[in-house]
Amino acid sequence: MNKLFHIFRVDEEEAKKISGQPDEPHNHDFEELLIGIHGELEHFIDFDATKTQAPFVSFVTKGKVHRLIPRIYKGKCDIWVIRFRSEFIPETTFQLYSFYHGQANIKLEKGPCFQRLVDLCKMMSAETKQETPNYAIIRQLLSVLFTMIEAERKKTEPQNETTQKTQHISFGNFLAILEENYRRPLGVEFYAEKLFMSSRNLNFICQNILEQSVSEIIETRKLIEAKNLLISTEKTISEIAYELGYNENSYFSNVFKKKSGQSPSEFRDDMKILLTS
Question: At what angle are helices 214-232 and 199-210 packed, to 10 degrees?
């Protein structure tokens, strides 16, 4: 996706097109959120196929192999689709991965709570149509949207799933500690000690939930913040590298290019073009 943020609606006509020629299972380099007002979603993810009738919320994390097929249900289909890059809301991204691991689709109830989600989608869509969209406003609205969805998700969560729930609590605690410390040059042992567990156990939990090692998650969080700073500030590459705990600018640039396929300066130049086009 060549945008930081994109929002659109899938109606009956578009649903017919997609269901008539569905994609093969695939992954993509952006996050995707669907808010289903009417219709049905056929979703293949985590090697399992499910069907969910609206109203629903579905979240597909970057890199997940999946296939989404919107379908008409009771003569209607109306689904908001929101796509955004990880660096658009960097402080929230990993928390979303934790929330939606193993539960990509959430069936909701019609009513005022769900209508608020729809209203936020309309507000974001309206902002993108302004002559000069304010991405700070869109970012705030998207964060509020996820906060409201999380409140609704908790209402549907099974009360007793001990092993899985314990892992999710530990993972959530790890992410909270990471959010406070990712700018520091700290390794796996630091986080494991903070959580009163072995490095091996923490790696096992992270692999199970995100399919990444602790070191990979730390590096990815640094990369997301690096992209955020490159987009939202005028700080030099050296200043950003130092702020994120890299002792050498060249090492930071090499890691950035290896992970993203571009140098920091190339990424910044491309984003400036995207945000002004």
Answer: 60
